[in-house]
Amino acid sequence: MKLEQLKVMQALIKTGSVKSASELLHKTQPAISQALKALEFESGAKLFDRSGYRLELTSIGRRFYQQSLRVLEEADDLSQLLLHFNKKNEEKICIALDANTDLNALAPMLKLLQNEYPETQIKLKTEVLSGTIQMIKDGNADIGIAPIMPFLLEEEGFDYLPLYQSQLRNVATPALVEQMKSAKKVSDLRRFQQVIMNDSGKAEGVFNRNFGVQMGQRRWLVSDLATKKQLLVTGLGWGRLPAHLVDDEINKGLLSEIKLEDTHLALDINFFAFRRNSPAINGPVASTIWEVLKN
After folding, report:
1. What is the mean pLDDT of residues 282-294?
2. Which domains does the chain have, with CATH numbers?
């Protein structure tokens, strides 16, 4: 049996008559009838009941039709896949995201990819500190998104775009903040356990240090923000988290922002998108992502 015969069967069931099916498929009525007879002959089963005014599916025909819809759907998926790659669209795209990235800020871009390039596999790889820039340098990601100083991106020779501004807030449970009430400077917090993220990159050059971490600071080392946040909410330490991850907990009284008399702890950060400065390696999908982020 042929896909065209299954399409004729689908058109007949959808429209309800040979005439309407012929109009839908732009075929003559005899051609529609012939295709249905050929399908029935090649299947070796009686698919249609011709005793009434209109063709009706038999019980076997109904089972056959339901299965044929899956075949047609998969054939359509295959056609779309071939069309996708014939347009030179990438098979997969990797976007390296700093762990502090707010995905809500990227929602329009992600929705466009889902709608316009469903055949391209999108991998979102979460990195910490130098990890995002390392992914781009090593060619393991197409686009990076992170709060990195523009001069660092320029030193690497990357193209970059400003995206949005956020804020990192130092927080702890209200009970722990109460214990810190005599502290005036960050140095006064050394005896309290600080929850710190491990760098997922090679930590070379300017990254070869612990940002916001003092010498002799008691610490917990974690590899993801979910674990960091859980330790903070549990009261096992203090640490810095992006506003979009802690605002709700602050409003509920689960966490409080640490404010010191002589030190401003909250940190404003600017997120950038960046990529290697080589248009030849950026295919249609990666280029579309870049244009959407630009606007």
Report:
1. 88
2. 3-86 (1.10.10.10), 92-165+271-294 (3.40.190.10), 167-267 (3.40.190.290)
